[in-house]
Amino acid sequence: DVNLKGTYFVSAAAIEHLEATRGCIVNLSSDAGIQGNSGAAAYCASKGGVSVFTKALALELAPRGVRVNAVCPGDVDSPMLRGQARDYGGGEQQYYDRLLAGYPQGRNARFITPAEIAEFVWFLCQPEAAAITGANLSIDFGLSAGIFPHD
Question: Could you say which of 8, 43, 96, 103 is catalytic?
Answer without folding.
Answer: 43
